[in-house]
Amino acid sequence: MSVARFWREIPSRYNLIGSKCGNCNKIMFPPRFICPYCRRTGKLEPYNLRKKGKIVSYTVVHAAANGFEEQAPYTLAIVELDDGPSVTTQITDCNHSEINIGDTVELVFRRMGQDGEDGVIYYGYKGRLLK
Amino acid sequence: MRDVAVIGVGLTKFGELWDVSFRELMLEAGVRALEDAGIDGRQLDAMYTGNMSAGQFINQEHVSSLVADHAGLVPIPATRVEAACASGGLALRHAIIAVASGLHDFVVASGIEKMTDIMTAGATGALATAADQEWEVYQGATFPGLYALMARRHMYEFGTTEEHLANVAVKNHENAFLNPCAQYHLKVSVEDVMNSSPVSLPLKLLDCSPITDGAACVILAPAEKARMFTDTPILVAGTGQASDHISLHSRTSLTGLNATVEAAKVAYKMAKVGPKDIDLAEVHDCFTIAEIMAIEDLGFCKKGDGGKMTAEGQTTLNSAKPINTSGGLKGKGHPVGATGIAQAVEIVSQLRGETGKRQINKADVGMTHNVGGSGGTAVIHIFRRAD
Ligand SMILES: [Zn+2]
């Protein structure tokens, strides 16, 4: 991935900046440029989402995505955030067998991957179980 | 709008075809369809080709021109259509619209994917580009992973089991065994599926459709001119298409595809039929869970009952609602751009009564259901015998 492509999304990936519609007050993540509910009548403002949510579904990935081979097997989940939107995220710092639908997680800052030996290191969010 | 009929179909062998190139594959399917229709290439008015990603698979874009050129059909208007794994179904829809509108009379809808010229990791990476690169793939999502998320939630909400999923693979391999064009002629048991290697749990290797080379082609004509070419024209009774959020996490439900529900509504209405009237369907079983969700979303059973319906044998070749008589994506193979057209080839052949050992008894109305990505696109067609 080019540095610019990664850099553009840093506010959302590091700090969970999404959008809030000034018209219908819906919160969205990732940020959108048009509110899907109000279209052009809604003005979107940046919104900092809270990092807590619940696991809606999960899978243990054995056949890793390209660039994620050394992390396999890893748990991928869909987490519904307390603010409304859902995200796809890995669940980190736990055994795969501990994870259940409905578990509460918080999103934490983690290293995601790297472009080869000397390439850019990518960061972003991963979920961590809250007991 | 004019009524549209299918007057010819052609299909290549599906599989890992190392000795056959992209061009040869496309021509093989095309020539078969032309011969089946008894039409000359010079009578054709336009062609639409479904292809997901020749750019990634064989480093070749602009395949519409390539296909027209090597088919000896220049300067025919040639258009490539892309909607990930629904590219073929969408090419068919655009060909239908072109004939129905009266703009063209004789139109080719083809689909092709040559996937085995690159390594498997490259191919699965190419397929993953149908998902949201920034917010799914960046996090480590794979295609089996996204469908596994749907499977886990389906199991949680409805009590669907891994054995239910396995039954889809067992049935589709049985049907593929009777299809000479299928990639696999190999029957599998529930135990085989359950014991196959983990891909993205709960999905295992035998829950997943394979990487495949293949091409398929159908020739369309205005219904009033179809009998000049065939005694058994098959009418396109309905067509429906819908979109949904590209990211699975943005959708309202993980246990079904709303694009399927919406596209089916339109196609059923246009064809003036309901789920009960469909004699057989080719549904998009890229993963076993996808077939279970499809038969629910298409209205063949209640939401949540798809696993049970399959395990009880209510979708086998000899049942009241045969699903994927061709072997489906699972058994026949899944050359992504060709799949939507290949589904139409199977339904047309069944409605004509030309499928040999896998021919079903009552085949008057048939359906195809083609999905792009994890459900961002769905295309549905309903076909009917003209008599
Ligand atoms: Zn709004």
Quick overview of this protein structure:
The complex is a heterodimer of chains A (131) and B (387). Chain A contains two helices and eight strands; from the N terminus they run H-H-E-E-E-E-E-E-E-E. With 131 residues, chain A is mainly β.
Features:
heterodimer; A: 131 residues; mainly beta; OB fold (Dihydrolipoamide Acetyltransferase, E2P); 2 domains; five-stranded mixed β-barrel; three-stranded antiparallel β-sheet; 2 helices; 8 strands; 9% helix; globular; B: 387 residues; alpha/beta; Peroxisomal Thiolase, Chain A, domain 1; nine-stranded mixed β-sheet; two-stranded antiparallel ribbon; 14 helices; 11 strands; binds zinc ion
Number of strands of chain A: 8
What's the structural domain tally of chain A? 2
Give the fraction of residues assigned to helices of chain A: under 10%
Largest interface: A-B, 31 and 34 residues
Helix content of chain B: 25-40%
Apparent shape of chain A: globular
Q: Approximately what portion of the residues of chain A adopt beta-strand conformation? A: 35-45%
The CATH topology of the largest domain in chain A turns out to be OB fold (Dihydrolipoamide Acetyltransferase, E2P)
Number of strands of chain B: 11
Shape of chain B: globular
Quaternary state of the chains: heterodimer
Structural class designation of chain A: mainly beta
Number of helices of chain A: 2
Question: CATH homologous superfamily of the largest domain in chain B, by name?
Answer: Thiolase/Chalcone synthase
Which stretches of chain B are poorly predicted, pLDDT < 50 over at least 5 residues? none
C-alpha Rg of chain A (nearest Å): 16 Å
How many domains make up the 3D coordinates of chain B?
2
Largest sheet of chain B: 9 strands, mixed
